[in-house]
């Protein structure tokens, strides 16, 4: 059997990686529809050696589509995902539009693959920072249970799209040339103030909520509980944007439930966990960095330490390519699981 796959947001930072990952994964795809805004009409993108023309994302474009991967912003997903489902497609949505909808599974295959089969047409791909964190927490949860999580993130600009990547380039060049620096996009395009990201750190990703946390921080908090099926798990997050292009890094503090956990045992868990690569040796200065993780599908973990005061507390450094495991690769994994398990229809 062969499938008709659509990519919505095909010209975007994540969409481009989706196309590349679909190609590399060699899924049984007999037709691909690459969709974006009117602005991209006529552009061509190569897929499996063929030039495919970008079409406008309109409801009729989903006629005959089996699986649609969405990454064109929440408002597009709200408008068009139901149109795709109406026409018989299963949607894997990379935006935050449906993630907390109780009818929509929120999936990281290494953690809760089986939730996919409960879908009603839409499956949500979690927030990029959340994906890599829960992938690293899951082996620890399975072995020891977890009681509490506190995370601080160090996030790449590509998480805010191609335009943010351009903004960082332009600002960096301007600064080095001694020219005036323009900030028009980050931290959040629609927000009132903008600050330079070049040679800076911005403790705001997405808009502020009434409780003083940003929406990105609340995504990490709420989505972690949903994916891990731990509704009562205490989770707290601080999310920070930094001036590099790719990969998110995280300092994760986790408290385990049962005794018996040690740094050595946790390292052993990571050595045997799917999708995780342990890179941890202070003697050889071995640890992952955003640059070393770029272009790779795995979640890299290093700097594992026991807390100085809390014997059941452990610190981890977790790094992954935000466009791959954080977005495109996780979405393609979900699509592959749907195909292999025959979960297209509920
Ligand atoms: P386009 O290139 O035609 O604007 P990024 O995350 O890198 O900013 O990319 C956003 C993606 O979402 C792009 O592929 C963009 O297409 C797409 N997109 C933005 N607005 C719309 C829209 N109104 N309809 C369809 N696709 C859209």
Give an overview of the whole structure:
With 346 residues, this protein is α/β, with parallel strands linked by helices. It folds into 2 domains: 3-126 and 327-341, 3-Layer(aba) Sandwich (Rossmann fold), CATH 3.40.50; 130-321, Dihydrodipicolinate Reductase, domain 2 (2-Layer Sandwich). Helix content is 31%, strand content 23%. The chain is built from 9 helices and 13 strands. The protein has helices spanning 13-25, 74-86, 109-112, 128-144, 162-177, 215-228, 263-271, 290-293, 324-341, and strands at residues 3-8, 29-36, 44-47, 50-56, 67-70, 90-93, 122-124, 146-155, 235-241, 248-256, 276-278, 299-306, 313-320. Strands 3-4-2-1-5-6-7 form a 7-stranded mixed β-sheet, sandwiched between helices. A 6-stranded mixed β-sheet has the order 9-8-10-13-12-11. A hairpin with a 2-residue loop joins strand 3 (44-47) and strand 4 (50-56). Helix 1 packs across helix 9, helix 4 packs parallel to helix 6 (215-228) and helix 4 packs across helix 9 (324-341). The longest helix is centred in the last third of the chain and has 18 residues, at 324-341. The chain is globular, with a radius of gyration of 20 Å. It starts with a strand and ends in a 5-residue tail after the last helix. The structure holds adenosine-2'-5'-diphosphate. Adenosine-2'-5'-diphosphate binds at residues 9-15, 36-37, 39-40, 57, 72-73, 76, 161-163.
Helix content: 25-40%
Give the uncertain stretches in residue-range form. Answer: none
Beta-strand share of residues: 15-25%
Q: How would you characterize the largest beta sheet?
A: 7 strands, mixed
The number of strands is: 13
What is the mean pLDDT? Answer: 98
* General form: globular
Per CATH, the class of the largest domain reads: Alpha Beta
**Mind telling me which CATH architecture of the largest domain this is?**
2-Layer Sandwich
> What is the count of structural domains?
2
The CATH superfamily of the largest domain appears as Dihydrodipicolinate Reductase, domain 2
